[in-house]
Write a structure and sequence with these properties.
16 strands, 2% helix, OB fold (Dihydrolipoamide Acetyltransferase, E2P), six-stranded antiparallel beta sheet, single chain, five-stranded antiparallel beta sheet, SH3 type barrels
């Protein structure tokens, strides 16, 4: 069991038979009154996002999410097919299960498969991925009026602000947590 006051973003808990991921968390102590905890949860089965308020001593069940190494194989219609690299089982994942992660996926990319009680919940990406730039405007020397960044479209369709020296067909590293440019590779 875990107290509401110990919740942190990224934690996964079980409450009333539902699996919830903590998106945001705030612990508020108001003057003489009792402390309250505000948390925003994402229901991992339905995808619904709710915001709730608790007392810090309320208890949640700790969910054991298993992570296994996997590889993204290909896109089949709307589904994304992922293979567990230890068992070679293939799992079709919907765009709802992947969320924003699908903007970083290329065929044969390594990732982690998240499962709970044998049911696939989604994937966990590495902290950064390498993507090729397919379209960007040329940068001109001395053009620093706009903080020296320009938009670039990558091979997956993700648009990232990059420095002026990045050109088409360059490979860049993008942080999957923030969606920001890290470096040219």
């Amino acid at each position: 069991m875990i107290n509401a006051g110990e919740l942190r973003p990224g934690n996964t808990v079980e409450r009333q038979g539902e699996l919830l991921q903590v998106l945001e968390f705030a612990h508020n102590k108001q003057g003489r009154g009792t402390a309250i905890v505000r948390a925003k949860f994402k229901n991992l089965q339905t995808g619904a996002v709710t915001e709730e308020t608790f007392r810090p001593e309320e208890k949640f069940g700790r969910a054991r999410i298993e992570r296994s190494e996997a590889q993204f194989l290909y896109q089949d219609g709307d589904d994304y097919v992922v293979m567990d690299t230890t068992t070679f089982d293939q799992f079709p994942l919907t765009p709802n299960q992947l969320g924003e992660a699908r903007q970083y996926l290329k065929e044969n990319d390594n990732l982690f498969l998240l499962t709970y009680d044998g049911k696939v919940l989604g994937i966990d990406l590495p902290t950064s991925v390498e993507l090729a730039v397919t379209q960007t405007d040329p940068g001109f020397k001395g053009d620093t009026a706009n903080a020296a960044f320009k938009p670039a479209t990558t091979e997956t369709g993700l648009v990232v602000d990059v420095p002026l020296f990045v050109n088409e067909r360059d490979t860049i590293r993008v942080d999957t947590r923030t969606g920001k440019y890290v470096e040219r590779v």
